[in-house]
UniProtKB/TrEMBL annotation:
Enzyme class: lyase
Compartments where found: Cytoplasm
GO biological process: L-cysteine catabolic process to pyruvate
InterPro entries: Cds1 (IPR047586), Cys_Synth/Cystath_Beta-Synth (IPR050214), TrpB-like_PALP (IPR001926), TrpB-like_PALP_sf (IPR036052)
Entry-annotated residues carrying N6-(pyridoxal phosphate)lysine: K60
Protein name: L-cysteine desulfhydrase Cds1
GO cellular component labels: cytoplasm
The gene coding this protein: cds1
Record key words, sorted: Cytoplasm, Lyase, Pyridoxal phosphate
Primary location: cytoplasm
Domain Tryptophan synthase beta chain-like PALP residues, every copy: 33-323
GO molecular function, one term: pyridoxal phosphate binding
Cofactor: pyridoxal 5'-phosphate
Record-listed E.C. numbers: 4.4.1.1
Naturally occurring in which organism (per UniProt): Sphingomonas yabuuchiae
Length: 359
């Protein structure tokens, strides 16, 4: 039953909603930048932007905040709005957090294969799960649920690049450059990230251009994703067979509206086994578990660092630690789960362990 509310009530509700989000932001500290020395590559240093330290455990905390503010300020969300999102999990966890803060119903449309701990995290923040067998149907199902509930589809894939302030406002790029400012090589030679919506790479690429930095942007993409194919050939718009990567959060079967190839300097395609091997090696080096997409980023970093060393170049390379590994205990950290999928990660782990060796 919808409640008749006056314009003044709605306006007051919205102001309070925005105040709560800004207050939450004001109480939050920025995420850390972890330095990783590489004795094997003198003069080259790797840095990890640790997005797992956000209150909801991933880089998607920033995006969820931006998407809620964007929808509130567009007048798309009110006190009775059911909020819907299509997500591989991380975004839905963060959006459920903000929906709960505003007292709103939240439905996450997720692939049925999503890791159980992620579903638990969505439910922990009061979110409802609507699982779909075919990940390619998440968009249509989200639109249908929005129509049925009279709610609003936040739609990260369309609005990620629009909702995030790429010129500053402490976006992830501004935070990285500020935290690099006292390092030997404060302007990174490369920043490496992945693409799910494409919002993070769009924000970083635009910020680099706007600030006129010499830094180049590299996007690491699972082999079974369309993004690196579209980067090479703009006619490649979707994968007929769907996206066969098991790395959650990155790689897509279709080119998403928030993916902006023109801000990207290079893309590197990475096998899932390599991503998981690198993820395991980095977890051992840091003494705590990281997520799969961080492994994908690291493989691309290793390629760029080897090329820099080959060219006698010194400098810094920054990448994202997108989320913690706690959510992947029953997948990427379960050897039987990996074996059952024929994912031969150990040779890649050994190779990355040598690269990351601290002595
Ligand atoms: C764990 C993880 N890493 C990386 C990304 C990619 O971020 P973006 O959607 O900004 O391209 C995502 C996106 O969902 C993610 O969940």
């Amino acid at each position: 039953m919808t409640v008749e509310r006056s314009k003044a009530d709605l306006c007051a509700w919205r102001m309070e909603a925005i105040r709560r989000i800004e207050a939450d932001y004001n109480r939050s500290a920025d995420t850390h930048l972890i330095r990783v020395d590489l004795p094997r590559y003198p003069g080259i240093t790797l840095y990890l932007k640790d997005e797992s330290s956000h209150p909801t455990g991933s880089l998607k905390h920033r995006l969820a905040r931006s998407l809620f503010l964007y929808a509130l300020c567009n007048g798309w969300i009110g006190p009775d709005t059911c909020v819907i999102e299509s997500s591989s999990g991380s975004t839905a966890v963060s959006e459920a957090y903000f929906a709960k803060m505003l007292g709103l119903r939240f439905i996450a449309v997720v692939p049925a294969s999503t890791a159980a701990p992620k579903l638990d995290a969505i439910r922990f923040h009061g979110g409802e799960i609507h699982a779909v067998d075919d990940p390619r149907t998440v968009y249509d199902v989200s639109h249908r649920l929005a129509a049925e509930t009279g709610g609003h589809y936040l739609d990260q894939f369309t609005y990620a690049e629009r909702a995030t302030d790429w010129r500053g406002n402490n976006n992830i790029a501004e935070s990285i450059f500020a935290q690099m400012s006292a390092e030997e090589y404060p302007v990174p030679a490369w920043i490496v990230c992945g693409a799910g919506t494409g919002g993070t790479s769009a924000t970083i690429g635009r910020y680099i251009a706007y600030q006129r930095h010499g830094t180049r942007l590299c996007v690491a993409d699972p082999v079974h994703s369309v993004f690196h194919r579209h980067f090479a050939d703009r006619q490649a718009l979707s994968l007929p067979e769907g996206c066969g990567s098991c790395i959650e959060g990155i790689g897509r079967p279709r080119v998403e509206p928030s993916f902006i190839p023109s801000v990207i300097d290079r893309m590197i395609a990475v096998e899932d086994a390599a991503s998981i091997g690198a993820m395991r090696a980095l977890s051992a080096r840091l003494g705590r578990r990281v997520g799969g997409s961080t492994g994908t980023n690291l493989i691309a970093c290793a390629t760029l660092i080897a090329e820099m060393a080959e060219a006698g170049q010194r400098g810094s390379v920054v990448t994202l630690l997108c989320d913690g590994g706690e959510r992947y205990g029953c997948t990427y950290y379960d050897d039987a789960w990996l074996e059952a999928r024929g994912i031969d990660w150990r040779p890649h782990a050994a190779q990355m362990t040598a690269i990351l060796a601290s002595a």
